[in-house]
């Protein structure tokens, strides 16, 4: 039995922050989202991604082995750097079961949600603790519906 088989029943989530590389454009953001949604649908991964032009904050949830595999890909992905894990937890159930990858970016409408969990006006996920990151992702998600 390989590790994928043995871990298949254990559901986890992982939340990380990363810094977008300077040459990453709006088109790249769309490509990342599309790639995430296509791959995740095939791999049993769900989650939530938020970004502005400088940072990403993402929660991925799914079988532990798949989440670890994706983590290896994310770490070497040249479109961002300084990946820092904010939280990992075992789950009883998924938070984003309807989304291969939900997403939100800062807008006028959701500015108050970012501010609610931040000490700064600008969005900087490196300054969030696990609870705030989780709260932020959840509220952004609820607002999107
Ligand atoms: C911020 C960010 C978020 C990403 N999220 C995902 C994701 O949720 N799922 C995924 O499969 N790939 C995601 N990727 C892409 C992976 O790093 C990697 O390029 C991809 O999984 C490789 O897929 P491939 O083997 O089909 O080429 C993300 C990349 C970045 C920069």
Which secondary structure elements does this structure contain, and how are they paired or packed?
Layout: H1 3-7, E1 11-20, H2 26-43, E2 46-51, E3 55-63, H3 64-75, E4 80-90, E5 102-104, H4 111-116, H5 130-144
Parallel strand pairs: 2-5
Antiparallel strand pairs: 1-3, 1-4, 2-3
The structure holds flavin mononucleotide (FMN).
The site of flavin mononucleotide (FMN) has 15 residues, from helix 2, strand 3 and helix 3.
Instruction: Give me the Rg, rounded.
Output: 15 Å
Count of individual domains = 1
The major beta sheet can be summarized as: 5 strands, mixed
The appropriate CATH architecture is 2-Layer Sandwich
Portion of residues in beta strands equals 25-35%
Number of strands: 5
Low-confidence stretches: none
Order of helices and strands: HEHEEHEEHH
Small ligands present:
flavin mononucleotide
Structural class: alpha+beta
Number of helices: 5
Could you give the order of strands across the largest sheet? Answer: 4-1-3-2-5
> First CA to last CA: what distance?
40 Å
Outline type: globular
Helix content percent band: 25-40%
| Main CATH class | Alpha Beta
